[in-house]
Amino acid sequence: MTEPADRRLIIVSNRVAMPRKNGASAGGLAVGILAALKDQGGLWFGWSGKLTEKSDSDVEVVRRDNIEFATIALNESDFEHYYNGYSNRVLWPVCHYLLDFLHFETEDFDAYLRVNSLFARKLASLLQPDDIIWVHDYHLIPLAAELRNAGIDNPIGFFLHVPFPTFEALRAVPGYEYLLRSLCAYDVLGFHTHRDLTAFRTCLQEPIVPAQINGDNTIRVSGGTLVADVFPIGVDVEEIQALSVEANRSKSVRRMVDSLDGRQLIIGVDRLDYSKGLHQRFLSYERLLEKYPNTQNNVTLMQIAPPTRVGVRAYDEIRSELEQDSGRINGRFASSDWVPIRYLNKGISRKPLMGFFRNADVGLVTPVRDGMNLVAKEYIVAQDPENPGMLVLSSLAGAACELTDAVIVNPHDRDSVADGIAMAITMPLDERRERHAAMLKVLKMNDITAWRTRFVDALLSHREAG
Ligand code: GDG
Q: What CATH number corresponds to the domain at position 293?
């Protein structure tokens, strides 16, 4: 087998995020991909973030260190229908089992197909015979089929960053049959958890996709054999540990800690998204203050929630809902020298963020559904092992499959979350240390490099075997 290092890795995702000085990108996919490309380099292809009135645009290539960033602009109307429309008003809610948010328009699906075909054409012009192609996420499901139609024979893998829904949810998606057939055009399909893999397998049903599921994670379909397996994404453990130690000495982190005036800090960091369960989280925190009155004036919740997908109605609505929640809870419980919730509707730089994690007694991660959730992993890694804080984690996040030593709660049950926080803030040091060490061990074993290596190896060995 050719060593992966000898072959160029091409990563494809909807949006290419050029690294910024302060590392402020808020989004798991961008954080994960940049970290995965850091060591061995490669090419990252996708949308530049620019909109145009033209239906076609030239590829722009920029090199930074060992990574080439190849980007295209997208037609403004296509972007609205493909990204805000089919991707984020149909696929995102269904993958998160939030069917009330599903809103389908035929023109959205048409644009989804058009943009995927444009991506394939533009990418094909950059490819060399030895390239390994790794496509990311639900925006680009048809890409392998489009590339094959364009005569591309390179190994092509796909990783899904969000949950894969069960058939009963998936079949609510107009076009789902096409999506299932398109997924089978990849050589390797990767999911975060066994639950997602099982859901995918059970969706392969006659007559949509006649498939034979084998015991070795291979699936035989009419066009050949593919591998479908579990590749839980990890984090860059060394980078986060170094950042959190460094940030701990910085002025901005010290100022934040001083401002707590000795109170315990509970931290939440999430893109402002309805899947992250922020409304439910604020109500659970209110329940904590009611049910455990001694927490009043003794804890502070800092919720950092940078806005995303602005212009999609559900996202604008959740923003105003959270403003109301935090205003009401603060009005109800605040005293002249204490505000229960510090709600920041903006992103902060990565380094101070890791410093805030290190100083937080509780990491509160309570999505109502999440593919994995990198914040949960980053929070654990950023802790001081001698005196670690405790993670309170939703059972509905993929991360709960690995971080079984966290305090696991049901995000829909306010008492479960309130009791979980109460348990975390009073947990004895020995128990915190033990649980932290167990979780850190898991995260070190399956860090971001292990994730990339396992996936690329699976892709290469499958092609070598075939
Ligand atoms: C998708 C899936 C899956 C957040 N706010 C700030 C900030 N962030 C960073 C976090 C973390 C990333 O963004 C968020 O990643 P998550 O995994 O928590 O969530 P999604 O964006 O929904 O990611 C998810 C992931 O893809 C990877 O596969 O885990 O399930 O939904 O790295 O630290 N970073 C900075 N400032 C912020 O304000 N600097």
A: 3.40.50.2000
